[in-house]
Amino acid sequence: MFALNLLTGCPPIDMKIKEENEIWQQQQDIKNLEKIGISFNFDYATEVNSWKVTSIPWRTFNETNYVGINVFTDGSKISNGVRCSMAGFEDGNEKEHEVWRLNNETTVFIAEMQSEKQLIIVNDGK
Questions:
Q1: H helix intervals, the chain
Q2: Domain segments of the chain as ranges
Q3: CA 51 to CA 121: how far, in whole Å?
Q4: Is 95 within 8 Å of 71 (Cβ atoms)?
């Protein structure tokens, strides 16, 4: 999940708080140095959040753009239920879909990985 947060530009709250705290601490250090006569010029500095350096844009499913075989997987945790799924399309037409119920304590990351594993198992059987 951490990797997905970074790639989509939506940081986990603990990471955001840590970064804000580090920035605040650096600002305090600069103020302390300025008190003793050391100054800094930040006119040309640009702040870039770590999760904005590499970002994958969101794409939504549009059936008219998909030619050939396309497979989509997902893992989700909703209302204390964890599931993973996969759906296969050929030329925009759904050919197969599967949904698997997982243990309630399973993380979304594991659900995502399980959907990839199930995709491999299903395809190996064909």
A1: 2-8, 13-35, 50-53, 108-124
A2: 2-54, 69-124
A3: 33
A4: no
What tokens appear for 37 in the block? 């006569």
The amino acid at 63: E
Tens digit of each residue's pLDDT (9 = 90 or more) over 25-76: 888 888 888 888 877 776 666 666 666 666 566 666 665 566 777 788 888 8
What whole-number distance in Å separates Cα of residue 83 and Cα of residue 51? 27
Please report the DSSP string for 98-125 in residue order.
EEEEE-TT--HHHHHHHHHHHHHHHHHT
User: Coil, helix or strand for 71?
Assistant: strand
Amino acid identity, residue 126? Answer: K
